[in-house]
Amino acid sequence: AIPVILLGCFIAAIGLVYFINPYGIVPGGAFGISIVLHAIFPFMKIGTLGLIIQIPLLLVSGLILGGRLGIRTLVAAIALPIFVNLLTTWSYPPEAVESLDPAKLLGGHLDLTHDLIVCSLMGGVLLGIGTGIVIRRQASSGGSDIIAMILYKYTRIPFPYCMMLVDGTIVLSGLIVIG
Predict the structure, then answer these.
(1) Cβ–Cβ contacts within 10 Å for residue 148, how many?
(2) Which of 87, 113, 129, 146 meets the CB 3.0–4.6 Å disulfide criterion with 61?
């Protein structure tokens, strides 16, 4: 199960690094928050920000929800940010890692600045496939679903609405910070 979870994380990282992050597209989840924070603190890598967000969420989850998320979630929550940082480092020249300039992504061979719909679709599909693989192995990448689970526990608002509320707030923050 762990190798399949790692594969899912790698696929999601490809979607984030090549199609989402360079174009300021803000998905929901911990990486949506990371992209917003990267716009404010560009010296911090998105994967590192993701890990900084996920570790406290996992700890709070263990305290409030119990240890039901388990080792698989821990693996996914650590692997995804590592894959994001590795792919970012390998795909950009050192001077472009902070700016995530799409013109420098893979030596300029993957600059889709004028095709943001394609970026959104490709990024969303890859992120969805990767996340789906992780979820099918009874794991979580440790992001906004934990916040939604806690919100559900205390409010009894149906879980899908909790997810929409949490992710919608993240996307809205991206609109405010990034534009």
Answers:
(1) 21
(2) 146
Sequential DSSP letters for 75-128:
HHHHHHHHHHHHHHHHHS-GGGTTTT-GGGGGGGTT--TT-HHHHHHHHHHHHH
Q: Which one-letter DSSP state was computed for residue 146?
A: H
Radius of gyration of the chain (CA): 16
Angle at 145 between CA 125 and CA 55, to 5 degrees: 105
Q: What secondary structure does DSSP assign to 47-69, as a single string?
A: HHHHHHHHHHHHHHHHHHT-STT
The one-letter amino acid code at 77 reads A
Structure tokens at 102: 């799409």
**What are the structure tokens assigned to 108, written together?**
């300029």
Query: Per-residue pLDDT averaged across 27-39, rounded?
Result: 92
- pLDDT above 70: residue 69: no
What is the distance of C-alpha 137 from the center of its chain? 18
Place of tokens 């991206």: 174
